[in-house]
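Limitations
The structure tokens in this dataset are predictions for the assembled complex, not deposited experimental models. Users should treat interface geometry with appropriate caution, especially where small molecules or nucleic acid strands are included. An illustrative entry is reproduced here so readers can see what is and is not provided.
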Amino acid sequence: MDTPVAVRGRGITKVFGDVVALDHIDVSMTQGQIHGLVGPNGAGKTTLLGLLLGLAVADEGSLEILGAPVGRALAAPDGVSGFVDGPGLYPTLTARQNLATLLALRPDGAPATGVEEALEQVGLTDVADDKVRGFSLGMRQRLGLAAALLTRPRLLVLDEPSNGLDPVGKKHVHRVLGRLASEGVTVVLSSHRMDDLEALCSEVTILARGRVVFSGPLSKLSDENRELDYRLRASDPSATRALAAATPGISIDDGPDAATRPDTDVIVVRARVAAMDELVARMVREGIGVRELAPVVSPLEAAFLALTEQEADR
Amino acid sequence: MTATAAYAPATGTGAGTASARPTPVARILRFELVKQFSAWRVRLLIGLCWLGPGLLVFAVDQQSTLPSDTLFGRWMHATGWAGSLVVLGVAGTWALPLVTSMVAGDVFASEDRLGTWRHLLIAVRSHRRIFAAKAIASLTVIGLLVAGLAVSSAVGGLLAEGNQPLVGLDGHLLTGGDAAGKVLLAWVCVLAPTLALAAIGLLGSVALGRSPMGLLLPMLAGLGMQVVQMLPLPVAVRLALPGYAFISWNGLFADPQQLGPLLIGVGVSLLWAVVATALAYLLFRRRDFTNLNNDGAGRRVLTLGALPLAGVLAATVGVVAVATGAGGSGITQDKVQQSVATVFAHLYRFQQAQMRQPPVTEAQLQTSAMCDKSEGLGAQEGPGNDWRCTVSWTVPGYNVAAQAIYQLDVSPNGRYIADGDGPVEVNGYFLIVTAGKAVPNPLWQFDGNVDLLAG
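Predicted assembly:
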């Protein structure tokens, strides 16, 4: 049985004047998954999000959202909510008034989440009666999310939702998005924060210069044959350094940054996955404890940089 | 709140893309009003309009010097209704253009500033309904502010001087009840040019987006039209400008009422209100909301904004000129003479009553006036401060002719101030004690109005 698809686009093209924002892209987003959208500035992320929200219509190609084809007229697809270019908020109204007035704009009979429930979900109950004028960027983002949740969407589209969030706020938002996905809501979010995307997304689409350079599960991004920098902290740093130097396929980063690194017991090595496996095995045999081992740059970020640089070189 | 929100059916997965009905206008209107009243600027305006005029009229009334250069200002000590008319005159020049700028001039641009357009459009799903709700919301707020100006100024005046008779523009007395009705009607009449300015505000707000020019447009248009009214223009052009109705309410206070200019002014204003609103709607429908940097109408401001309005002005000038047959300034020697004689006769009777003299009739007075401009040199018509009138009348009981001289400053819009130039016993400055109060001789200086359209 096929996996249900929330968004399917084929050959989508959008042009603004002389600028080709999207160039015949194909996208597919699985229902009930959190789908990340990444790309350098000007890659076409916001344009794609705008198409999903019905803010613009593709010049070419076909787009299907929640099983229904998107027409040529500007109209918000049913079951979709979210925000692009930041949440639209009225600073002279309180958080509660912002949500209540938005709720009042719903057509009759539309399903809705209560204002209080939406505020609670994003952790803004305590400031519900404060004017939005005094809100931080993070609080505005959370209120924007609450507004999007009011209509009980089946496709939630968020542009940089973690912008300005403190760690507590970020955790809150991540928890809400995770719960929505578990309830079958498809979430599409764009972000420059690779750690956020890695923590949240099961699928990702990387855009560069209006083209899709990768789209699929995050796990497929990890290329075992690509060399990565790893940060390694061990119980015996000097012995580890000697072992790394003696392990084939591993080079130690002793570049200019190494001397200024604050944690002197950490070494940075460059290797493929197989070589790192061998080094760890040797350390274990020598009785050296591995206290920390992680890629310096996440696989998503590494892939992002590699793929977008390739696209830029074309 | 306008985070993007679309209607999601409660059940089913194969929903159409735009099957949900748009939000009813009443709900969008309520939303717009909530936004309007939450803004400190609007709250401040409401406070100022509902309290300011009353306090101002009351305070001015306590002074010994009155604003006699403003129409009806010299009668503020005589009746409470004069204060409201003074406020109405000033409001037409300053307050109403300002109010329309602050409300209608910002109603669309505020969404640009806040970046909420795209969210609002998707939440509501109808450009037409958003436009209608925003237009009605601005008119509601403007109506509330105008009502505040009218009520506050009337209450302030009545508290200071009470419901006394008002001396009309041709010197005849209006009872308190008549004055109240005409003051109310005058305020209703200026709603028409206020609507025209509000529509220009909507047009500017849609066409110019975040640009401050959009906000300033009604103010600039209002002031521009006031300045133009001070120029020696042909009558047809003067009447074809929507701002003329800010002046033509004066005609309500003459006897017989000068309704021609008033009705034309109101009609032209309403025409401008309809056309400017329609143009604003056209621009709004054609705007591309997908591009954040595009917050105005660009070159369409000219083709769908300025040019059609220029066309309306040209067409209106033509229609007014043909329909009324009016040409030139509308201020002729005959009209000035007739007006001055009428006002003098009315005020003479008023003065006699104040001085507890036996009542006289206008038939007994047989008043006439001989006026010339620039000492009879050049054309004897048009505005200027070089008009000089000699008023003649028959002194009741003595059957002898008497004369008094006035210097007139006639404005291009037909309003004039007559300043007594002797003899001092008739039109000099002296005080008359009446009803326990000392008031200036009513024949010393008086206001009058030449009917620009009279035959």
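Some entries come with short summary sentences. For this one: Chain B touches chain A through 46 residues (CB under 8 Å).
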